[in-house]
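Researcher: Sequence of UDP-N-acetylmuramoyl-tripeptide--D-alanyl-D-alanine ligase follows. Predict its structure.
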Amino acid sequence: MNLEELHSLFLQHPDVCTDTRKITENCLFFALKGPNFNGNKFAKEALEKGAAYAIIDEESYKLSDKYVLCDDVLETLQKLSTFHRNQCKAKIVSLTGSNGKTTTKELIHAVLSGKYSTIATKGNLNNHIGVPLTLLSIKPETEIAVVEMGANHKREIAFLSSIAQPDFGYITNFGKAHLEGFGGVEGVIQGKSELYEYLTSNNKYVFLNADDPIQMQKLDSYVKKIGFSTTNHQYFNITYIEANPFVVLEVEGTSIKTQLIGKYNFTNCCAAIIIGKYFGVPLEEIKIALEAYQPQNNRSQVMSQSGFKIVLDAYNANPSSMQVALENFKEMEGDEKSLILGDMFELGSEAAQEHQRIADLAKGLEFQEVFLVGENFHLTETPFRKFKSFEALKDYIGQNPLKKGNLLIKGSRGMALERVLDVL
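Model: Prediction complete. Tokens:
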């Protein structure tokens, strides 16, 4: 079966599943392989659960004409998604960056949805599997697809760009994330910039933060760029008002009061504003969308529990996001402020230095209590209480209740520090 024939089959069965636990009636099941599993072994189960066809790449599993044999299931999924993307009218807006990708994607989606039929990457399904699945979720009526791209090595963004073939793109920032895979900060800049390289080489539009010197340098001579700035009047001006704790900004005389904490979310809002403006969304509609958006999934959520006012930012962490989170938390109203910080992952040879730097920063900002969790933080030289594991922290809190007040909880996804809520 060639790609065009497979696409015809997909149009008849537009739901795609890669997990037999999530099979929907009449879907196409793609039997992907991983380090510890072979999807071909689950093809029969997928069909029994209601899948219309199973796409496999090992002939021994082909038991009927309900099995579609190909050379490589993953490669077929990727090629099918690109083929489908090129059959659709939807414009593709892609974004990447070290921090804030998912929040920015959700803000852009919220703003554009006020005027257009818009879809966006679900959750953070932003890799070599997630991007194709997002493209395959584009319907005939979809006008704009907001596609998030993640990477932890060079050339990944270039590859994802070749799959999605975006019409527009934006990079949130260049920070200290995935240093191990990228080989340092310069590698991060090179890797994330692959999105801009794709767009400029294909004469596509680029959105940028004109206050970011790296972005300005990369796009200095490129004509098709649309930027925002707080100071440079050559670009669309947006004024930062405050983040105490929620971001307030002003654009064209209109005040927008968001439900996002932290000055670091200001630029995320700015990106959504200029993209909305470019696509002709009225400012009043942009304001409504930004003010209604509430962060979820442990991303900078503000909540009250057991006498604490908690900032839960436990979805992920790297040195850049950790620094701005601590600095912003210090600036928030209130005197009694404590921290529970978890290890930052994928830092390679930089791990010891970066964890020590964050511990020193926390000490310099003079918080009430600081608790450091994880093997990397446990090795730091600091006066704070350190715990090798979450279980050790849990046991301590059980016997030594924390002082009430404001509490920031932040760590990498693997630390799952949202579990602290059950302990408090």
